[in-house]
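Letters spell out the chain; backbone shape is given numerically. Both lines appear below:
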Amino acid sequence: LRLRTSGKSNVEAAKDWGAKVGSYAPGSPMALSIDPGLDPGVTAITALTYSQNEMRVVDAEKHADFTQMEQILDLIEAYTIRYRPQDVVVETVAFQRALERDERLQALGKKYGFRTHPHNTNRNKIDPVMGVAAMAGSFIREEIKFPWGNPVAEARMGPYLAELHAWRPNVPTKLLTQDFAMTLWFAWLFILNKRHTMGMDTS
């Protein structure tokens, strides 16, 4: 994302130096966002909380060595046990649609009390209003935050912020590393819609 004002990158401004990975305010709405992929693809997951005017990444990781759907489901369950999300957003392109419809994922939803929401990526990714680049406004308003309070947070979130800083709408997908960026975008779209349905002020 090409974000820079007053000589300072807004991706850099998104760092919360007082937050550690896994820390969040109890009772905050929690969502998981998953971009599933099996070898040679990558599975990325992001956990984040949100409020009327802020989205806060709590944890994230990605795996390039998954070969079975069960590994993706195990990752989702591990994050669900850790963070107790109310909502799980899943990319549903090609084989990924099978995950969103998988009875085992639905069973996890019933067991842990979360709702599953599909996200379908196509040319909407480069849409100037609701595409990935549209998140720039939220960064400029400093509405998106990442934990950066210790070396563990820096190591975990450094690659995430690097993806966001490097993302360009005019660069072919195959030339970009964008697994984390996609999960943030899925969540960003879901949360914008959620705010509307909850009557939250999104101005």
